Amino acid sequence: MKNWRSIARGNWSTFLLPGFTLLAILITWETVVRVAAIEKWLLPAPSVILQALWSAKELIWQHSVQTMQETLLGLALAVVVGVALATAIDWCEGLKKAVYPLIIASQTIPIIAVAPLLIIWFGYGLLPKVLVVALVCFFPITVNLTDGYRLVEPDMLRLMSAMGASKGQIFYLVKLPAALPFFFSGLRIAGTYSVMGAVIGEWLGASRGLGIFMTRSSQSFLTERVFAAIIVITLLSLTIFLLVEGLAS
């Protein structure tokens, strides 16, 4: 009985309380907009946003498919490159000293400043958006996995060495399994940011995608459609996060 009560309390705090808080915010928002008679081009009410989301559902779906294609390709590229580089850094101490500081320093460069260069170099097609997503997702995957390799229990490594295991065997039997939680931790962060990376790339030049949908809507003062796109972007990010969470568990 005590366990069921603790589970119920956990579900209450995890789902119900945030849900009630969000509901209270939406009700307050709706009330303020209606009482103050705020124009919908300036701040649409939640009900107006939901109507816009429903009325433009087919158009939003078309743009969402494009954004998700860019997101998944970019995330996959970031995983491949990030895992390969983190593993190479773990195997070669000299490479770590040469490359790891540059990886850290690269995060001081805003992605919004790099994206226009990718557009110039690779045009307005799919590739620059995929590269933007990969750049956004690359850092947390690489750094977390590198830390995972580094923080493996030293006693276990010494034991495997004493048993005559080769460096490759130590890596596959000890380091890689121990580093997987770190990898998934970085992948959760990367997955959350991946849709945002695709949208940033689309802002700078695209013919389809949620980013260009938001740009066109804002230029036409269709603010309710901008909010509708934000809702879809949030849901897509949560979906990717939950998929990674499922893989990690």
- Strand fraction: under 5%
Counting structural domains, the number is: 2
What is the CATH superfamily label of the largest domain? Answer: MetI-like
**Overall number of strands:** 0
In sequence order, what are the helices and strands, one letter per element? HHHHHHHHHH
Global structural class: mainly alpha
Number of helices: 10
CATH architecture of the largest domain: Orthogonal Bundle
CATH topology (fold) name of the largest domain: MetI-like fold
List keywords for this structure.
MetI-like fold, elongated, 0% strand, 10 helices, 249 residues, mainly alpha
Topology:
Blueprint: H1 2-36, H2 46-55, H3 57-91, H4 93-106, H5 111-122, H6 126-150, H7 154-162, H8 167-204, H9 210-219, H10 223-248
Describe it for me?
This protein has two domains: 37 residues; 205 residues, MetI-like fold (Orthogonal Bundle), CATH 1.10.3720. The radius of gyration is 23 Å and the shape is elongated. It has ten helices and no strands. The model has no long low-confidence stretch (mean pLDDT 88). By secondary structure, it is mainly alpha-helical.
Brief description of this entry?
The protein has helices at residues 2-36, 46-55, 57-91, 93-106, 111-122, 126-150, 154-162, 167-204, 210-219, 223-248. With 249 residues, it is mainly alpha-helical.
